[in-house]
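During the second half of the funding period, the structural biology subgroup turned its attention to how the target accommodates small molecules. The most pressing case was flavin-adenine dinucleotide, which had performed well in the primary screen but for which no bound structure existed. We therefore specified the complex as follows and requested a full 3D prediction, including the ligand pose.
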Amino acid sequence: MSDYKASLQDMNFVLHEVFGVADDWAVMPELQEMMDADTATAILEEAAKVTEGLIAPNARNADEQGVSYRDATVTTPDGYKEAFRQLAEGGWVGVTANPELGGMGLPKVISAQYEEMMCAADISFSLYSGLTAGAIIALDSHASDEIKQTYIPRMAAGEWTGTMCLTEPHAGTDLGIIRTKAEPQADGSFALSGTKIFITGGEHDLTDNIIHLVLAKLPDAPAGSKGISLFIVPKFLVNEDGSLGERNAVAAGSVEHKMGIHGSATCVMNFDGAKGWLVGEPNRGLAAMFTMMNYERLGVGIQGLGAAARSYGTALDYAKDRRQGRGAKATQDTSASADTLLVHGDIRRMLLTMKAFIEGGRAFSSYVGQQLDRAKYAPHAEEREAADKLVALLTPVAKAFMTDTGLEATIHGQQILGGHGYVREWGQEQWVRDCRIAQIYEGTNGIQALDLLGRKVAGSRGELLKPLLADIEKTLNEAGDNWSKEAAQLRAATEALVSVTEGILKQVPTDENIINSLAVEYLQLVGYVAYAYLWLRMALVAEASDSTDSFYTAKVKTARFYFAKLLPRIDGLVGALESGSESLYLHDEDDF
Ligand SMILES: Cc1cc2nc3c(=O)[nH]c(=O)nc-3n(C[C@H](O)[C@H](O)[C@H](O)COP(=O)(O)OP(=O)(O)OC[C@H]3O[C@@H](n4cnc5c(N)ncnc54)[C@H](O)[C@@H]3O)c2cc1C
């Protein structure tokens, strides 16, 4: 397995040359003292050291050893406990947490790069701190001051981790039908009873305490999703002086045996009258949990990117080294009996597809990260509102498109090694298995697509698309003659997106199946158009650079590849979208 190397040059290019994030920070009162370009570069260099040196070396063993369960306790793979301790000591668990509560308060656009490095190093391990970061944000946004002061500083310090307990055996996507109950107690707390399944980090040996955020129903709750409340349930109760008290009545019943992320403990959690406290308003728990889920969704998208980036490193080294067959005459190496894989067109197709999705994905996650920062810190209300709209539109795309393209990329990374990609020795099959879950959890990619097309696009009558279209238009206007072909392609793709959207909106009143039938292809279309916009934007910046570094010429060439080979995929999507929902509903149940 190749060692992991973080893509620092590309991250710095995206952050500073493409998005000019330091200019944003300079006018943001909360960030202007803390952040500038040099600080950001130093943080990313440190993050690279931690992820390359401390986290990545454990990934292979963690996959093989996995977690083990015995008598309600879970043991993580060798090396995880020490790595988590060092990660916590370095302050990395609280990177995004509120500085007033012990966090680093880094802008999202920076933590997105750190998250990519964590996921490329070891997705399984990244989940323990990633979910903690999400839980901190949900508590910071919705919990009482007392809860915040008791829990957040210890979680931000990595002394305790967080979980998100939503799923039940009969209730996955449809959380409205959960059965976990919360009975009010005389002391103002609640007694929670029920079973949650698939709980990431529900039990482990990395920290002394685990803080569960749990969705449950109050006795008089209205039916459906309007009757769900959010509770905080610690594994150990916390005494007034902050020390750990009694063990709470929550325990892991088992761990799942699964396709990938073997180092992550996926637990069945039994709540038997466990003591918990309400977070936020009664019956408003789903909205509060969405704060965490929205944060996690970009993070899960980044898992796709990280897995792809890790796979690319090995695939590229292998393609440069392995000799098989002869290339075209001009590329033949006559000093050897065969040429490297890199001369072959099909290998180049796969490597460049990976590269275009990875660098496009890195730009996309940074674009969303920058908008998240603007939505929170921009000095003017209208800027914050515009950014908020882009975040609402792009979050489901980030989760689904980055994991779909991430999986495709890891499969190419496996294919490039032929049979050696299928066997374990080179490690390529691990990234395929580890990446696969990212399309499923945190709301399946199908559900992300429904959110995009149903709630966001149709729900706003297309209004939410407008800030993205305005950004695209700005870049199209900057493209000179050298990019006229690609600019024309992007304009046509954008027009197709607008026309498809209008077509769907017209059908909504008369076809109740239209959204559910077209959502996935629609999300893919938005993804390809958004990446095309970012590739054109990156190409213009790279071409204008004075640098003679081949990084910039390679960037331009990869942009040409994206427009030549990947953007044309939208023609098939547009055709399928224009065909409507009819062909999906011709079959009666017996016809399947
Ligand atoms: C390894 C792992 C870790 C996980 N970690 C956590 C965790 O930490 N906390 C937690 O609470 N949960 C966790 N989950 C649960 C995960 O989020 C759910 O598996 C996921 O939300 C889907 O729910 P489900 O599996 O019950 O599938 P279902 O909800 O039964 O869905 C089955 C299929 O039907 C589709 N579908 C469902 N409803 C609709 C609809 N209305 N329209 C169209 N299609 C639909 C889905 O997209 C899917 O393809 C984890 C799961 C796994 C496997």
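Two results from this model are relevant to the next phase. The chain has 18 helices and eleven strands. The chain has a mean pLDDT of 96.
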